[in-house]
Amino acid sequence: DSLVLAVGTNAGGNALIVRGDGEVIDVAELAEQTDPLLFLDTITTNQEGTHIAVADARNFQTIVVTDASTEPTFFPDQPMAVGESLIATTQVVGRRAEISLHDLDGERRTSVSSDLAVGGVITDDRLTYATADGAVVRLGPGDDEPNELVQLAVPGSATVTSVAPTANGDRLVLSGPTFETIIDLEGETLFTTTFASPTDVGTPSFTAICVTVGDETNAHSFVRVDDGTTVADLNGDVIVSSAERVCATLVERVDGTEEQHVLVTESGIAELGPLSSAWLAPDGRSAVVVTTTGITQLVPIEDDGTIGDPIDLRSPTPATIDVVFLDR
């Protein structure tokens, strides 16, 4: 998978795409726009990160860029998902949506009317998406109408407000204010739970094999996305740092009157004790921590999740510390 960083403002404007090799793509410059209105939360890419789509709110269209020297491709409507050879776009029409599939060179392959679509993923040249009322739908390039796979049981009067592909596009995480559900691409429910009060559910990474369920400041559980197995009940723990691609998360929990930092993996739970700060490496093999006495340490983590002897890095720790893990 390719590292892609998007730079912009919450209020909209230009968007800069920064690749892992240092290439910077100025979307407004490529699209020849002097007054762009691009929002980062509309950006979606294919798995390799070679095609990056962003909604152009000024002109009610989608812009797809590949690199800094190639002219962008323009599509009508808003982007929903990008595959290896197709892009899906959506436009709200009254209380329904118009869903379209296009080749990445711009040719429209199909366009159908649908219930309001929230999000989805393109795999094997087919779009699988979920609607606000919980229908899981499939659409291919030659289809004249969407094919509903299953109607999920959405709790009470809730609606689906977020759909996030994960497990490299093999799973979808659906959520609303009072529930969270993990499904496969045939619509089978692998995990589901409800929350007693409205919850701000986080967005899992595309490559995650385990995800945090619930609010990161009041987590519910840590769950494998391939089969929905609960790795650990978190019971209101605060998520400090996660390595979702290796199924590890570092949480802060209250033990009696004392706050403890705990590493949660499929092998079990390991206590790191009270800490001022902590960062878990993306590969889950180490953590950088700042002790309550101000010492910065590198903490090795074994394959079985046990904690090795800490290595002192610096003491005292400055008031502000930035931690970056590099892949060498």
Topology (SSEs and partners):
Elements: E1 4-7, E2 16-19, E3 24-26, H1 27-30, E4 44-45, E5 52-56, E6 61-65, E7 73-76, E8 78-82, E9 86-93, E10 96-103, E11 108-115, E12 117-123, E13 126-131, E14 135-139, E15 147-151, E16 162-166, E17 171-176, E18 179-184, E19 189-194, E20 210-215, E21 218-224, E22 230-233, E23 238-243, E24 248-255, E25 258-265, E26 268-273, E27 275-280, E28 286-291, E29 296-300, E30 311-314
Antiparallel strand pairs: 1-2, 2-3, 4-5, 5-6, 6-7, 8-9, 9-10, 10-11, 12-13, 13-14, 14-15, 16-17, 17-18, 18-19, 20-21, 21-22, 23-24, 24-25, 25-26, 27-28, 28-29, 29-30
Brief rundown of the structure:
This protein has one helix at 27-30; strands at residues 4-7, 16-19, 24-26, 44-45, 52-56, 61-65, 73-76, 78-82, 86-93, 96-103, 108-115, 117-123, 126-131, 135-139, 147-151, 162-166, 171-176, 179-184, 189-194, 210-215, 218-224, 230-233, 238-243, 248-255, 258-265, 268-273, 275-280, 286-291, 296-300, 311-314. With 328 residues, the chain is mostly beta strands.
Note down, in words, how this protein is organized:
With 328 residues, the chain is mainly β. The chain has one helix spanning 27-30, and strands at 4-7, 16-19, 24-26, 44-45, 52-56, 61-65, 73-76, 78-82, 86-93, 96-103, 108-115, 117-123, 126-131, 135-139, 147-151, 162-166, 171-176, 179-184, 189-194, 210-215, 218-224, 230-233, 238-243, 248-255, 258-265, 268-273, 275-280, 286-291, 296-300, 311-314. A four-stranded antiparallel sheet has the order 4-5-6-7, with no helix packed on it. The longest helix has 4 residues, at 27-30. The protein is globular and about 60 Å long. The mean pLDDT is 92.
